[in-house]
User: What shape does this take?
Amino acid sequence: MMRLPRFRYIVARTVAEAVTIKADAGPGGAYVAGGTDLYPNMKRRQQTPGVVVGLSRVPELSAMRFGSDGAFLGAGVLLSRVEREPRVRSAYPGLAHAVETISTPPLRNMGTLGGNVLLDTRCNYYDQNYEWRQAIDFCMKKDGTICWVAPASPRCLAVQSADSVPILIALGAAAVLASPAGERQIPVEELYRNDGIHYLTKTPDELLTGIRLPPPDGWRGSYRKLRRRGAFDFPVLSVGAAVRREGDRVAEARLVLGGVASAPLRLTASEAVLAGRPLDAGAIADAAAAATGPSRPMDNTDFSFLWRKEMTRNYVKAALTALL
Ligand SMILES: Cc1cc2nc3c(=O)[nH]c(=O)nc-3n(C[C@H](O)[C@H](O)[C@H](O)COP(=O)(O)OP(=O)(O)OC[C@H]3O[C@@H](n4cnc5c(N)ncnc54)[C@H](O)[C@@H]3O)c2cc1C
Ligand code: SF4
Assistant: This one.
């Protein structure tokens, strides 16, 4: 049995208290929401914070608000609440569907939207217990120096694997961040860096308080995910798609790939292919074809990376076809 290392658990009651405790704890501190990612990582000694700041008793983080200016979903809202919320299902069905595909019902009753957005990157050489990683002399992401996926690589290539992220970016969502210096808002897209270790652009002390979604205003979104089993598996290729039509033509499109790099990947060539055309089988086929080139999965998750690259076309096609 894998045991948690020793740590001090401090319950925060407000956002201000949480950011202060975390700042005081320094680099040895970590936030925890549902703990479905952090605690397994701690058991595998991938993260060993001495102080863990519990967020589940911060009421502000569990708020959901809906209005003419869009929606605010608190970072601490449970995934099961997001997927069941009728206002999410009607205004942002693509997001509700993406959240429904995350792991299993018990984990969605523990895991939060914020924890998902900030999920650690994944790799076959990293998501292993301590002894397994020790047997290969570890790797660059934790305790080692080399990348076993690409030994010449100067950076870690662990994969962005959170299901909510591609569709949030496609829907134009923003992340609200709080720190002792105040609050700021950035597009969710700007939250990520293509580096498997330093995969977030936010500072370690910044607390994600929630996600802001613009009003649908004619945008419709969808999500498709490749995984080995129909449930309980992380995406090894995923597509978030959103399209706004004017008349019968696509006015704007956003297409985002997950599971192929350390950051979500915007498919700008495919977006350009769709602009100004009716969303029909021909336009979808052309956009799907333009997605294969930029999709460069690495050999560090389930399935062959060449097959995942090939499947990009099919999954982009499926995500766009769902919007017909
Ligand atoms: C068996 C299994 C299967 C899974 N399958 C999937 C899957 O299919 N798809 C998927 O996307 N995920 C999957 N997950 C991962 C995880 O369950 C979800 O991503 C979940 O949403 C994480 O949320 P959490 O609240 O538990 O995060 P936590 O574990 O609490 O936190 C995750 C990270 O975010 C940080 N954090 C959390 N909240 C905040 C905040 N408000 N501000 C700043 N930092 C914060 C933590 O410090 C930690 O680094 C799976 C996990 C398991 C164990
Ligand atoms: S991509 Fe390389 S450095 Fe990153 S976790 Fe995998 S083996 Fe380690």
Observations:
- The CA atoms of residues 41 and 47 lie 6 Å apart.
- The chain has a mean pLDDT of 97.
- The first strand starts at residue 8 and ends at 11.
- The longest helix spans residues 305-321.
